[in-house]
Sequence to fold (203 residues):
Amino acid sequence: MDALTCIKKLGYVGVLDFATVDEDGAPQVRNISAIHYEGTDIYFLTARGKYFASQLKRDGRVQILGYTRYKETIRVSGRAVEVPEEEQLRWRNVLYQEQPYLENVYPGETKNIDTMFVIRDYTIEYFCLSTRPITREYFAVGNAQLKPKGYVIGKDCIGCGTCQAVCPQGVVSEGTPYGIDANHCLQCGSCAENCPAEAIRRL
Ligand code: SF4
Ligand code: SF4
Fold:
């Protein structure tokens, strides 16, 4: 898997969930289909008067979620910026050509209320439940930085093997200390909950 393949998969999914936070810090999520992919750049459209647009302008943080028919979850976390005025028309035309239904929503000159945003710097979390063990991968696109996630086993490990026994995916290996294969970990926490030495830490 790689970042561009994840983005192509999102394109096949079509309609994606876009989450933002409002002025009270509450989550706000909506379905968005007016999306154009330019390489790994994600362009999308909304209207300037929508709460979605004002949340993006105020905060910019956005999380996108798509789920494929192959039980793959693809999560994009990044920052959206409004496309500069001089480029707005170009990208809006591209999107309207790709998705003619938009003309039905904003016919003729009424589409002038639209505004385009783009996400260039983001991280991707790929999570696939159709493999055994499950697959989990992370990618950084543009200037985004990955934050470590998951569980690690520290030097307090006494080698009892309990974590290995309770792991639903069999991704704990013996050693000093024992180890977790992060690319196949569910992040369920069972190992940490059952460790008698409290040697397992969530990042
Ligand atoms: S349960 Fe804790 S102490 Fe036992 S092997 Fe796993 S990490 Fe080490
Ligand atoms: S978090 Fe769950 S899946 Fe991951 S190693 Fe621990 S028990 Fe296994």
About this structure: The longest strand covers residues 114-128. Residues 85-98 form the longest helix (14 residues). The domain at 151-202 is CATH 3.30.70.20 (Alpha-Beta Plaits). The chain has a mean pLDDT of 97.
